[in-house]
Amino acid sequence: MPVESANNRSLGFSVITNVQIIEGRARPPKGRPAIRDSLGIRLGLILVAILFLAVFVLVPLIVVFTEALKKGLGVYFASLTEPAALSAIELTLFVAAIAVPANLFFGVAAAWAIAKFDFPGKSLLITLIDLPFAVSPVIAGLIYILIFGAQGLGPFLQEHDIKIVFAVPGIVLATIFVTFPFVARELIPLMQAQGSEEEQAALSLGASGWQTFWRVTLPNVRWGLLYGVLLCNARAMGEFGAVSVVSGHIRGLTNTIPLHVEILYNEYKFSAAFAVASLLALLSLVTLLIKSIATWNVSASAQLREPSTGK
Amino acid sequence: MNSRPTATSPSQLWFKRRVLPGFGLTLGFTLIYLSLIVLIPLSSAFLKASGLGWGAFFRAVSTPRVLAAYNVSFGTALLAAAINVVFGSIVAWTLVRYRFPGKRTLDAAVDLPFALPTAVAGISLATLYGPNGWLGGPILALTGIKVAYTQLGILVALIFVGLPFVVRTVQPVLEDLDLEFEEAAASLGASRIQTIFRVVGPELYASIATGFALAFARAVGEYGSVVFIAGNMPMKTEIVPLLILIKLEQYDYRGATAIAVIMLVISFLLLLVINALQRWSNASRIR
Lengths: 311, 287
Fold this sequence. Notes:
Largest interface: A-B, 117 and 124 residues
Largest sheet of chain A: none
Shape of chain B: globular
Radius of gyration of chain A: 23 Å
Strand content of chain B: under 5%
Helix content of chain B: over 70%
Distance between the termini of chain A: 18 Å
Structural class of chain B: mainly alpha
Number of strands of chain B: 0
Helix content of chain A: over 70%
Number of helices of chain B: 14
Number of strands of chain A: 0
Oligomer: heterodimer
Largest sheet of chain B: none
């Protein structure tokens, strides 16, 4: 089964492909008494799992919102609408508006080349695409400083009055680096699992390459693509380490939302810091919600498809 | 891109078994973009470090403060990944095998550390586990142990960032597992514990190891969620990424680069290990 070899290479993100595979298998062993755990064990393990996730994930999430609203809605909205916050929001949207489409375009191209064709060095290429996930965000910022900073191209750029690091272009570059693999790694296993028979059929029926891509390939991977874009976007808007290194921390000019949060927090303006942070927390909740819907859709359509392919 | 498969230019004769169009264009774009954004910038760090010479490089990465930071980063990341292996496996098991109310919410919550920005997680964990926090307060009162601003705080943040990896690598394998093997073991007289450790366990080793390596790799480089809760005391609670940032702010580019190169080499090695582990786990699944 090609699906199985494709799905497990990810760093744990390709949840949507996993769901397709598991359909119809390994349901909780309700009617299988031989392997049913005793009630005590079941309750105990469920309790451990809930406590673990509560202490490390759910309660921290709740803290963001309770701290944000601690001093009332007035302070909350005032923190979101003060000029420094607005300019941070604006810059974050601007950075994401460049970084996400760039990596979307790359992800689709890379997935097409890798999933639909065979060539030497393919597994090396896949590993290299994963590389930014393995690199610390701080190092991601550092390498751009080495290239464009005073010790690298800095003097040349200064002569021509171009600012890259400690300015917006550096933030964009660092963000593109850290969000580089998201779309590609979501799409590659999905497109590999689907093979290229449908595309070949479309081509043999006279469709052009573009038509085949838009009408056959894209609809097949749309939920995976959406989730990849959303994760890429959430990370682009929330990236802290890499952006912190290249930003120069100029208030109102090179502060993104996470950097603004840091400044407020370090100035002990906790309510304001959490108010601004709650925007990013809401974004991550929306991301996860759409992901749940997407996963549900994929498994539902897989169930619908199964009976017809079985015949 | 638009060339039909029926057209035969010389270049297509060379690739004549490729029916679909767009191979050259998409692969070319992929390689150029990869080089410009990732490979060339990363190689600049190695280039810069090679300009230092071995002696200076070695001195830069072996000062007591740097060694202490490596110790804190790697030690805490290992411990966090180990804790995630234990609890991540339990979470994966309950999500696959049991039915209970709130299961879907719990399943979605596992992905939160992927989606929640690290700085948000950082200030939230620091507040929650701080001396006046909902959890930090009671823990301090009951046990006298401070969580935030100690190495324990770093551990909490690293558990948070690594949490999804073990769950999401073990879960699909567990879902794929045929229940018949367990039934066979049970019918042959094995106790439930024996079945879990002798029949289910070996099927999961590869994916658990993969999840461990992924969680560890992520934790070693983590910055945003750690700096707020760590306290950032040199020699005690200073992680390597923070030390790189501090060196940069002091315009010590050489020192920062030397430390970064060590981290990069370790990251590359980890990536290779992870790839090997994934091949192993795929092989054991396909069988």
